[in-house]
Write a structure and sequence with these properties.
2 copies of one chain form a homodimer. Chain A is an alpha+beta fold and about 80 residues long. The first copy, chain A, has helices at about 1-10, 25-40; strands spanning about 15-25, 45-55, 65-75. In chain A, strands 1-3-2 form a 3-stranded antiparallel β-sheet. The longest helix of chain A has 15 residues, at about 25-40. Chain A is elongated, with a radius of gyration of 15 Å. Chain A starts with a helix and ends with a strand.
Chain lengths: ~80, ~80
């Protein structure tokens, strides 16, 4: 709900677009945030784009292989 | 990796499109599956559309309120 409130605050501040980004297991929460914002609070807000991708993370230890993490970027617009 | 293998099998069977759907916390796994399929195994496969939404679930008990769950549907095409 903190992220929901943050989105609403930015829109109420006059923004026309808000980007919601997440990585890894937080991706499902980003989708929850977007759905709650547009269904419960701001019905005039539409999903403009949804992009998914992969980010390569530097290895934690010397010599380890880099790991990949999935990302999502959702753009909301009113 | 079972879902990755399933996607690859469908494409190898001649399909032009594959839909990957998930709900709730499995959404991040669906994104992982799509990213692994297109980055590691089938580079000619593109993400055609990504749709997010909400599904209302019937209450588990009599008289309880229905719950909402986020959904994602990713369409891959080659």
């Amino acid at each position: 709900m903190n992220y929901v409130l943050a989105c609403i605050t930015v829109f109420h501040g006059g923004a026309k677009e808000v980007n919601v980004k997440a990585r890894g297991r937080a991706i499902s929460r980003a989708v929850d945030v977007v759905e709650i914002v547009r269904r419960r609070f701001l019905p005039d807000v539409k999903i403009k784009t949804v992009d998914i991708g992969t980010q390569q993370l530097a290895p934690r230890e010397e010599g380890a292989t880099p790991s990949n993490v999935s990302t999502i970027e959702i753009t909301l617009a009113r």
